[in-house]
Write a structure and sequence with these properties.
Elements lengths: L2 H18 L14 H20 L14 H21 L15 H22 L10 H21 L10 E5 L4 E5 L11 E5 L1 H8 L8 H6 L7
Parallel strand pairs: 1-3
Antiparallel strand pairs: 1-2
Helix pairs in contact: 1-3, 1-4, 2-3, 2-4, 5-6
Amino acid sequence: MEWIDLLESTTGRFADVLATGDLDADVPTCPGWTLADLGEHTRWTHAWAAHAVTAGTPDGDSPPPGLDRDALVAGYRAAAGVLLDALRRAAPDAPAWTFGADRTSGFWRRRQVHEVTMHLYDALASQRATDAWGIDPELAWDGVEEVATVFYPRQVRLERTDPLPAPVRLTATDLARSVVLEPSGVRAQSEEVELAAPASELLLVLWGRLPATGPAAEVLAQARVTP
């Protein structure tokens, strides 16, 4: 993946929605948030990730620039620019603080692309324009694998969720690939179930943006595989 190029283009698209959308519109995929709230959250996350790369700690913080359009858009573009600059300056294998097993700046190249890609979907959802989202199947599948190898195990490890009661096989029908979400350290209560869909739909299901269907829906409903 050309992570830097992807991050630059996707943060640009997200900024464009902030610049033109209704900032007071509710974000249906993030209950209780408006588009302005979503913009501030994503701005803060970019600034926090940049600090993790440059300072090597999770202690980064930055005050909100304001939720009026001019301040929000300028603040978001500035935070995205600082993050891009930090990631360009740091080699992918340079040490960085992360919350995953990969303790390099390369972690943040991948993670921040997926972060803003999902929040771009949310931003477009606030404007009833998710048809404009779109994602390359390979990128979507990488996001599915990130959930399987980073987020779901972390959720269980931090006791934020109970393990899944049965294995869930996620099959990308547009790529003919699959990965299994395992019960994670406990005995499976039932046989493996499968959720088969295009990679982009699998990603949206795992992050709670679309409902699961079929036998996998009941199993996935019993755990929070993502924060």
